[in-house]
Amino acid sequence: MAIQWYPGHMHKASKEMAEVLPRVNLVIEVLDARIPYSSSNPVIESLSAGKPKIKIFTKVDLADSATTRLWQDEFEQQRQTKTLAVDLKTEDRSEQIVDLCRKLAPKKDGVNSLVMVLGIPNVGKSTLINSLAGKHITRTGDEPAVTKGQQRINLRNGIMLLDTPGILWPKVQNEPSSYRLATTGAIKNTATTYEEIAFFAADYLLTHYPRLLIQRFQFDCLPTTEIDFLEAVGAQRGCLRARGRVDLERVSTIFVNELRAGTLGAVSFETPAMIESELADLVILQAEKAAREQARLERRGSRKKSPRGY
Ligand code: G4P
User: Which long-range contacts (CB under 8 A, 24 or more apart) does 105-109 make?
Assistant: First the structure.
């Protein structure tokens, strides 16, 4: 089952953003380099269609660099779209970003260009805006959705930034994407459990990054299933309950936090090929669901027409 989280303040913020978007000259979309597709808001994407865009991949230090390159190539094929991959913790790329903004949306008739900065919760929007503004103007924190309400920031270089709250969208259609959002910390921890995330992440890493797991946990022989993996790590870390049983919740919390902090190494949770295949599966699933619904309606309709009992 997909993990969903769409509190009321996100609905309100989304409506407010949609109202302002027609006046915006350029959109900076902040994406998590580990999940560039899953961290892209499809609602905003459609509302901002036709506007020049800079897609900034943050947390590039935590992502697989080869996969990040693949995503940048993929997104750069979209119209009027430029990408930049940055590690906001150690790099200051504000000059480059400002230059790009001026190029894509130059100041007209002495009027500042209005640049909307948007992104899902916890992706690094506040950190980016702080670095662009050169001073600490918005709060950064470790809980998703810290920033609330839009804020205008005059950079005094022809650019007016419009900071927006981190929002998700009502329904994440692609189920693996919802797990990826929870794994990277965009979906609030209270909307799911560490265990659920740990099972998803362990399964993914066993398949795609087995060497990182062997290095980090010094396995002679890599466990084959996610439960065996978590039990082995739990035993190593002393996460034990009565009679030596592994405390899955404790080990899951440790594992997910290490993964989020990059302690296991640089990991990307999706590639363009994976997403292409997942979306193709989704189309089939949705068509099957629609056919089932149609058949149900037809059965109901024919039952109403026929006399009782026939
Ligand atoms: P938001 O406004 O989009 O919600 O995100 P925010 O800037 O608050 O950043 C969320 C967390 O992500 C912060 O960590 C921030 O330091 C971290 N972060 C942002 N960009 C990068 C990056 O490029 N690489 C890495 N590794 N981390 C990044 P925190 O632990 O919540 O706070 P703190 O460590 O700054 O105290």
Answer: 105/25, 105/26, 105/52, 106/158, 107/158, 107/159
Q: Cβ(58) to ligand 1 under 6 A?
A: yes
Q: Which atom of ligand 1 is the closest one to the Cα of 91?
A: 23
Are 102 and 159 contacting, i.e. CB atoms less than 8 angstroms apart? yes
**pLDDT at residue 5, as a whole number:** 87
Q: What is this structure's pTM?
A: 0.91
Q: What CATH number has the domain spanning 8-163? A: 3.40.50.300
Beta-ladder partners of 29? 55, 118
Average pLDDT, the chain: 91
Give bridge partners of residue 30 from the DSSP assignment: 56, 119
- Return the best residue to mutate from 58, 84, 88, 127 for the ligand 1 pocket (most ligand atoms within 8 A of CB): 127
Ligand 1 mutation target, pool 88, 130, 184, most atoms within 8 A of CB: 88
> Is 185 near ligand 1, meaning CB less than 6 Å away?
no
Q: Is 90 in the pocket of ligand 1 (CB under 6 A)?
A: no
| Of the options 1.10.1580.10, 3.40.50.150, 2.60.120.10, 3.40.50.12780, the CATH number for the domain spanning 193-261 | 1.10.1580.10
Positions of the chain with pLDDT under 70 = 135-148, 307-310
Closest C-alpha among 222, 231, 226 to residue 202: 226
